[in-house]
Amino acid sequence: MSKQFQFKLVLLGESAVGKSSLVLRFVKDQFDDYRESTIGAAFLTQTVTLEDQTTVKFEIWDTAGQERYKSLAPMYYRNANCAVVVYDITQAASLEKAKTWIRELQRQADPSIVIALCGNKLDLSARRQVTEEEASKYAEEEGLLWSETSAKTGDGVNAIFNAIAKKLPLTAPPPARGARVTASGTTRQSVDLNRQAAAQGGEACNC
């Protein structure tokens, strides 16, 4: 029988970096050219099946990026098992904001939380302000998963959520609904999805 696990995932990042579009692409494989800003947070679920048939269900909290909602964020990342911190590769300031969120998670979230840094809007790479080298170096220093995605085209979206699922602790018994799954005793390790794919002889994750 396949094992089933359930994890709380939170999305953080500045307003307009594409968090909601990223989740919509992952959950429904859809993209809307215009989406209104999230108010407070939105809740969605999606399931990932790993190669060994282990099933990982993500309970996703998509948080609002506007400053006036920042004080609500701890409600959503508290007890989260994993987080995707999103920046816009065409806006350098959004990476600095992402770093602020990551520092906050490192200080206040569960020490075992799996954090992925996600550079969105790869389809606009001609307007890039954040280089792959800058972002991947930061992720490596902080022990984060890292990749680039395009919510518009779908490039790399599933890959980054699959990478999170693979990194989560899947050795505990399947939790009851609402129960927490932690990874006590594990250490954080950086995984550059683009390099990983290249090392395996596959195409880079272009996420």
From TrEMBL:
Pfam families: Ras. The keyword Amino-acid biosynthesis does not apply. GO terms for cellular component: endosome; plasma membrane. It comes from the Eukaryota. It is found in: Cell membrane. CDD domains: Rab5_related. GO terms for biological process: protein transport; vesicle organization; vesicle-mediated transport. SUPFAM superfamilies: P-loop containing nucleoside triphosphate hydrolases. GO terms for molecular function: GTP binding; GTPase activity. It is a lipid-anchor. The keyword Cell division does not apply. InterPro entries: P-loop_NTPase, Small_GTP-bd, Small_GTPase. Keywords: Cell membrane, GTP-binding, Lipoprotein, Membrane, Nucleotide-binding, Prenylation, Protein transport, Transport. This is GTP-binding protein ypt5. It comes from Suillus luteus UH-Slu-Lm8-n1.
